[in-house]
């Protein structure tokens, strides 16, 4: 059958995008296994690093903020933080500004592990996207930025 000049249907693009995402997510989960972390747990830890950088303070984030950054329910964020706390990777403490609120911070072990996983994540992304040449990666970046609402540079 000769190649078609017709562009793929939207549902075909959606399926291709979903399949590529699942492949990336599955391989990323496998990369996290030696660290004994789930993708949600790593994303929570990464959010704590970014959150303290965004605020310019080492105080941490409230559970509600963690949930918002992960786009999950507060109850789910509590479960993720519970698991990280049991592993000694995060601490909870009283918010000095509002004693009713709890702040979550990374422990030194959590910060070290986050740094190690970020290096592994960069290596994983290079391997995964290394199947594309430089021009294809630039085009994919442009397209995904456009679909994600990121303005072009």
UniProtKB/TrEMBL annotation:
* SUPFAM superfamilies in the cross-refs: Winged helix' DNA-binding domain (SSF46785)
The record ties this protein, via InterPro entries, to: HTH_MarR-typ, MarR/SlyA-like, Tscrpt_reg_MarR-type_CS, WH-like_DNA-bd_sf, WH_DNA-bd_sf
Q: Does the keyword Transmembrane apply?
A: no
- Which keywords describe this protein according to UniProt? DNA-binding, Transcription, Transcription regulation
* Family matches, as SMART domains: HTH_MARR
What Pfam families does the record tag this protein with? MarR (PF01047)
HTH marR-type domain: residues covered: 10-149
Q: Does the keyword Cell membrane apply?
A: no
Transmembrane parts of this sequence: none
Q: Which domain of life is it from?
A: Bacteria
Q: Which Gene3D superfamilies match?
A: Winged helix-like DNA-binding domain superfamily/Winged helix DNA-binding domain (1.10.10.10)
From the Swiss-Prot or TrEMBL record, give the protein name: MarR family transcriptional regulator BpsR
């Amino acid at each position: 059958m000769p190649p078609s000049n017709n562009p793929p249907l939207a549902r075909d693009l959606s399926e291709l995008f979903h399949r590529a995402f699942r492949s990336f997510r599955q391989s990323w989960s496998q990369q996290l296994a030696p660290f004994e972390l789930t993708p949600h747990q790593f994303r929570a830890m990464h959010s704590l690093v970014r959150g303290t950088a965004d605020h310019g303070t080492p105080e941490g984030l409230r559970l509600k903020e963690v949930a918002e950054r992960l786009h999950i329910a507060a109850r789910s964020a509590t479960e993720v933080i519970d698991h990280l706390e049991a592993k000694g990777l995060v601490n909870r403490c009283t918010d000095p500004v509002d004693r009713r609120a709890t702040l979550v911070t990374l422990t030194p072990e959590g910060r070290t592990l986050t740094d190690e996983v970020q290096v592994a994540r960069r290596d994983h992304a290079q391997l995964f996207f290394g199947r594309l040449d430089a021009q294809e990666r630039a085009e994919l970046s442009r397209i995904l930025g456009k679909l994600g609402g990121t303005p072009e540079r």
